[in-house]
Amino acid sequence: MARPEIAGIFLGLLLSVALLEIARDTILFRLEDAALGTETVSIFGTAPEGRVHCQDARDGHLCEEAYLRDPGPGVLWLGNSQLHAINRYRPGDRLATEILHDWFRSCGAYLVAYSQPNANLLEHAIAFHALADTYDVRLLILPVVLDDFREQGVRQSVSALLGDAALPLRGSSFGPFLDENRDATTDRSDSKEETLQALTEAWLDREVATYWPAWAARDQLRGVASYALYLLRNRIFGINAQTQRVVAENAYREKLAVLESLLRDARAMGVDVFLYIPPYRADIAGPYHPEQYARLKADAARLASEYEAQFAQLDTVVAGPEWGMVRDSVFGFEDYDFMHFTAEGQRRLAEALEMALANSDHGCFSTH
Amino acid sequence: MLFNSLTFILFLAIVVVVYWLLPIRARLYIILASSLLFYGFWRFDFIPLLLFSAMADYLLALALDRRSGSSRRALLVVSICINLGVLAVFKYLLFFADSAGSIASLIGYEFSSLDLNIILPLGISFYIFQTMSYTIDVYRGSYPVERDLLRYLCFVTFFPQLVAGPILRAGDLIPQFSEPRRCNLQFLSDGIRRILMGLFLKVVLADQIAGIVDTGYSRDPGGLTGFDVWTLAFLFGFQIYFDFAGYSHIAIGAASLLGIRLPENFNYPYTATSPREFWQRWHISLSTWIRDYVYLPILRGSRTSSAGGWDVAENQNGTGRSARTFSLYGTWALMGLWHGAAWTFVVWGLYHAVLVHAYRLISAVLPNSSARLVGVLGWAVTTALVMAAWIPFRAQGGAHAMAMWVKLVDPRAYGGLTLAPDSYLVAALMLGAVLLARPIRYGLVTRLGHHPVVATVVYTGFYTVVIAGCLLFLRQTHQFVYFQF
């Protein structure tokens, strides 16, 4: 091997270590907030009982503890980051989930929300099955979002909600979908085995992380690197928030089948369902293909009618000024935000839901 | 022990330092002890099996060397029976039992399935082939019997290649154990370079592609389009290549750190312009092993050996066409079965036999041409066919593989793209990368040699990316694919 290559390896080692150190010091951020942009803050709602809005298995115990302090007939609201993000956040701003929690408390029910960034319907179905008993769920509130039809796979943090309930669920009507995603719902890591290799590796990993902080931050750094690649890809291919993206037909049909299974299971379990089309920015051209978006609304209405669920179209309740821009945390590229809005938007969403629920068979939970 | 781990890096560093501090004979003790420790990190209870297999061939080869005539042949048969017997019990027993049960149920008999929990010992297919080839070489007289037990055990257990090759012949390795060597910069720098490349291929490329592949292959094939299936076939083709070539790089690099040269196992296989050439470039140590110890002996009892490929005896006069065809298909069925105890692997092997056979027939008819267009066409057809062959390798059973293959040939299945958009992008990027790697390696790198300053800058940039990638992604998310074989 030539001298330049040997020098390259040596210098490369120094530079790569320096690069990781710089990355850790300067661009490390909470990756789950990255897609929200710098103007949008992610918060999870609280009430006097404690947390009433959680994300997944990582913080779910907080919501369970709060619920056990003053339990009541449960209302489970599932969704994506729209539920836990506020654009141009100011202290004191409230989420729709908090407002609606108060409303349900006034009639003796207990609303708890679980929201995941980039959630998909399979994850919602898993969360519903996992949480139905925990919160004595009588009503499920579920937004029907076109993006949820595109996203694939099940995150470990969601499948972990199931715990020991995972096996019996394979017999439920969405078991086949769960089986299809089994690679995603099982931990592929070999390190959980108590082999000499796994024990040594875990010990070494801890030791290196103790003396080298960048090593400890590798999970986040990997996420940041992937996110940076994603942003660059979009930039190179001219993809932006307004680029129309059609959900593939097969993916659409698969997710619609999951939604139908979810409605069927909920009905069999005696849980009412309230489906709604969530707010969608209308002051500028958006990324949804108009025909597919219309079809989504029609399909959601049809399934709601078929399974005696309530249905509301709330896509126009948040006006243009309540939507914002998103500036990413890596390169600072700016783009329109089609998913998250201000606290005023959150208030309007809560108000619209209250009205729709009050006009429905439930009233404020009157049937229970 | 897994190569893609901190444990291995620490282990290797300690072994290398101690190794070079010791005199030549003591180095062999270090190799043996570290190799057994390396294996024991997976499971210590399978070390006796490894040593049993090694000792059986050591003793049989010694006995064989002292005899002549038919008793030599009998001892060789004993060796082959022991080796294949070990493989049959640990790797194929359940497969044979299940297959027999299925056949029996077809003709109306019902057997209860074997309720055995047999663990496949790590690397068994590799070390069994290695010990078996040693005895065969001694029998053939192509390698002298090794009387030094320590040197022989080092050959069988040499940790860099113990669990996933390259599969070595005694002549590749044993003489190197006796050569006096001094630690030098060339050994060390070559070793580090190969280990870095191997880790990069494994943890940055193969393991990242694995996530897309796992998701794609877990989907119902009914929901996939023809484009999707091609993409998944290509992606798995890249995953297994980066995974296995990565392992081989690390093995060669680790051996180099100890002053030992191992033969190459891959040589830009996806640039092959024919199925025959592909097998001269892919898993070279296995394909030459199978050729020398299975194919040629079946064909004509030949002892000929050469450097790769399947064409050694194919065009020689005096061998019947039917005998060649039988040898080809029989050998490839075995090649498939070597990879795994499942009919999908046999299908994979026979598929490659068809490719090699078809190429043999076509190349005999077509005029020899070196035209660029012919090369490009040959590459495109070979790559597509080889990638499609990976489907049964990765699919979840025969029906799954068949359903995916049907998508490839059904013109009505080519309606749209249903995988995550990045899947297509990654597949296209990887295809570009494997095509460009060879010209870069032999063109640009050679030219860089004339400009030391430019070369230093380019290498620095390159290794910064490689090392940063390895540091970021080094973790045990996926075992090496070939560990299961």
From TrEMBL, chain A:
GO MF terms held by the record: hydrolase activity, acting on ester bonds
Domain of life: Bacteria
Name of the protein: SGNH/GDSL hydrolase family protein
UniProt source species: Microbaculum marinum
Species lineage: Bacteria, Pseudomonadati, Pseudomonadota, Alphaproteobacteria, Hyphomicrobiales
Automatic annotation (TrEMBL), chain B:
Residues forming coiled coils: none
Pfam families (alphabetical): MBOAT (PF03062)
Organism name: Microbaculum marinum
Lineage: Bacteria, Pseudomonadati, Pseudomonadota, Alphaproteobacteria, Hyphomicrobiales
GO biological process, one term: alginic acid biosynthetic process
Identification of the protein by name: Probable alginate O-acetylase AlgI
One Gene Ontology cellular component annotation held by this UniProt entry: plasma membrane
Pathway: Glycan biosynthesis; alginate biosynthesis
Any one Gene Ontology molecular-function term assigned to this protein's record: acyltransferase activity
Record membrane topology: Multi-pass membrane protein
Membrane-spanning ranges: 6-22, 29-54, 74-94, 106-129, 149-171, 233-260, 326-351, 371-393, 414-437, 457-474
Keywords: Acyltransferase, Alginate biosynthesis, Cell membrane, Membrane, Transferase, Transmembrane, Transmembrane helix
Compartments where located: Cell membrane
Family: Belongs to the membrane-bound acyltransferase family.
Main location as per UniProt: membrane
